[in-house]
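Practice problem: predict the structure.
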Amino acid sequence: MNGKSKTIEAMYSPVACATLVNEGFQNVVEASRISLNFAAKQNAFLLSAFKKALKDTPLASLPGFDLATQAVDDTLAIQKNQLDLALEQSTAVIEAIKESGTDPEKAKTDFSNVLQSALDRSAAAQNSVIEFATKQANAVCDALKQQPGIAGTEAEKAAETAQRAYESAVKAHKEILEIATGRAKPAND
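Answer:
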């Protein structure tokens, strides 16, 4: 069935409409996973750069880098699990709509309410994880910059660069969440 046929069928069938929306949501989940994978690679790259920059200093042997790597990896894994949960909820909604019978208005209303609620819960949970990770990343960068002998060095510059890079990745991920939950701001704002 081509795209036009799917659209026409979706106009007359709540189940077809819900299935079409779920396909779009699957694409959003995949885009979010790509963003999270990018964040993991960026984290590994930045921590490796820190280790190299500090290799001839006493800071190189501190466990903070390994702890930071693990904290970010764990946070990303949590976010991926939440994405899976949201997708499962979306699929469950479609199944509920299929079972709603022949009342298309009821199915449409129920689907809309349940899906938005599930997306909002998932986005809120992801945002809280993102906020936690941001605080942790900032704390690590700030602690590193305050270590003796770091001020004015390449290590301080690397910490600042890492902090900005992480903040950019977080901003992009939040924008994806806003799009996924339908709360994106119009382009002209």
